[in-house]
Amino acid sequence: MMGSQGGAQDRLFYSFNLEDHVPRDHLLRGVDLFLDLSELREHLASFYSHTGRPSIDPELMIRMLVIGYCFGIRSERRLCEEVHLNLAYRWFCRLDLEQRVPDHSTFSKNRHGRFRQSDAFRHLFESVLRRCMKEGLVGGEGFAIDASVIKADASRASRWTEGEAPTRAVREYLQALDAANPPAEDDPPEGPPGSPPRHISPTDPEARWTAAPGGPAFYAYSTNYLIDLDAGIIVDVEATPAHRTDEVQSTKTMIDRVERQVHLKPKRLVGDTAYGAAPLLNWIVNEKQIEPHIPVWEKANRDDGTFSRSDFTFDAQENAYTCPGGKKLNTTGRATAADTLLYRATNSDCAGCALKQRCCPNTPSRKIPRSVYEDARDVARTVCASPGYEQSRKDRKKVEMLFAHLKRILKLDRLRLRGLIGARDEFLMAAAAQNLRRMARWLGPKQGIGSAVAV
């Protein structure tokens, strides 16, 4: 017999429990298990007034943002709609069926107000990291460092040039540059090192003009990850303009901050050639006593058939190089602006040498540059020749996998917030979401959760 639905008469009473309608293996059950916001109110207390109407619960807004970053819901308006409709989202946010979801405008006010002033997102990220450490997912023996470019919320077709009336954002950016880099009397005509870049976006002047190999140029920021190699947990994240120098310098910031905040210091640091510059290697080896599993950035090798620097032998006691012809190259001991010592052969030694055409065919004598940090570079070369380096190269792929997950699963391939502070807030929330998803996958309910979590 064909059944039929009952009448449309409303019932007076309903028995409904949200807990019964959230699957036991849902991702948010695992996230809820490891998300601890017990200290959030105390952290934000001084940024709320003691009088006036009660505000939206900050824990509710943070939970909604965690949902947005965990599931790649980039629009706050859509996030509010999804929380309104989805029973699992309501359960995670501690909202019953009758409670209203906050308006999307509330997020903008708090992002640019209390949350930013109190550094709430940094507080959230570090609380999640401490939970990862408590659960035994952070070994602390080896770290890896890398950066990925994320498009800024700025049109690549717009560009401010000198002579045009600057927008408010550009004007404030130029004033900040002038304050940070006051001009000196001997500065070149193009300005001091902190002078503005050639391409400035009128809407987001802190974003840098960059391009991937073979692709179009665009405005962007870089998210820099420092991860623990045991389970791929992100131990720190730093936002920088999309520029190689800023990315490399963020390494010092993150390693120092992790050591200061959570008392973690790795025995080895894994990175690619971009982090193999001599000053950074010197900092890693001699100041931090960390083993650098990083290829040395070599600029002295030649590919024109003449002798490279590796063909010359250095004698540390005599502080001199010996060329393939047996002649000495000495230095004055004065370093150049690039922290480099020049070792020179005499003109008379080179003029009568049978190997001159293979050594310095176009100059009277041969010069060999040597960094003042060459001892740190030698340590890195030794490490890169060891068996453990091959495993480190494989481990570094964990960072690249996190970046792929960030862009493809969490949908953070373009920022919604502007400015370096906005980029920092987005990167911190995304990194916290990735760590929460990792804990939910590894330690949360097992049945079926592997298909729901792709980290």
TrEMBL record:
Domain spans labelled Transposase DDE: 322-440
Taxonomic source organism: Caenimonas sedimenti
Listed name of the protein: Transposase
Pfam families in the record: DDE_Tnp_1_6, DUF772
Domain Transposase InsH N-terminal residues, every copy: 17-112
InterPro entries named among the record's database cross-references: Tnp_DDE_dom, Transposase_InsH_N
UniProt region (Disordered), positions on chain: 180-211
